[in-house]
Write a structure and sequence with these properties.
The structure is a single chain. This protein has 4 helices and 5 strands. By secondary structure, it is of the alpha+beta class. Strands 1-2-3-4-5 form a 5-stranded antiparallel β-sheet, covered by helices on one side. A hairpin with a 6-residue loop joins β4 and β5. α2 packs antiparallel against α3. The chain is globular and about 35 Å long.
Length: 132
């Protein structure tokens, strides 16, 4: 996954298809429930127009829309053993990774989305770059 940013084209999957696939495969596994909750939250918050998603086995991979040609910055979400790991993989090499208890998954995901991709400021700039 570390090479995704360098040369691989991001192949977006529709969020409802991601949800259906993951629910079909993982619903019986509490291990992956945080990833399912995150996918469901993207749909519930109607963020499909802002975020593109795909899956890699049991990982969720997200990038902002519109999708740019490679290199692509992504956020990878993994859940295992009651923990959620969210990693920003940047084409600049300024990667960021955090791991927390699984129940913090949705809030942690949205914190990363706001910091890295979705900037809720009047101009769309990151909050620390907003000009008053």
């Amino acid at each position: 996954m570390r090479n995704l940013g360098s040369s691989i084209e991001f192949r977006e999957q529709p969020w409802p298809a991601i949800a259906a696939r993951l629910h079909g495969v993982l619903d019986d596994s509490a291990t992956y429930e945080p990833v399912l909750d995150i996918v469901d939250s993207v749909i519930a918050f109607e963020a499909e127009a802002l975020l593109a998603g795909t899956t890699s086995m049991f990982d969720l991979v997200v990038t902002p829309k519109p999708i740019t040609p490679p290199p692509v910055d992504v956020v990878v979400v993994r859940s295992l053993y009651g923990r959620i790991t969210i990693e920003h993989i940047s084409h600049t090499g300024r990667n960021d990774r955090i791991e927390r208890p699984a129940q913090e998954g949705v809030a942690l995901f949205w914190r990363f989305m706001i910091e890295k991709f979705v900037h809720p400021t009047p101009t769309g700039a990151p909050p620390d770059q907003e000009i008053p």
